[in-house]
Amino acid sequence: MPHISAAAALQICMLLSALPAQYLLSQWYGTDSTQRIQITERLIIASWSSFTKSYLSLDAWADHLKLWLSKTRTHLNVGLLILHFRNWYYGEKKTKTGDNEAETHSYFAESTHVRSPKPEYIQFSVGQVIFHKRFGYSGVIVGWDVKAKAPEEWLQHKYPPAKQGLKDTPHYRILINKANGSGKSTAYIPEEEITIIMGLEVHHPDMKAYFSGYDGSKYIMQPWLKKIYPHD
Question: Which residue ranges does the record assign to the Hemimethylated DNA-binding domain (predicted)?
Answer without folding.
Answer: 121-222
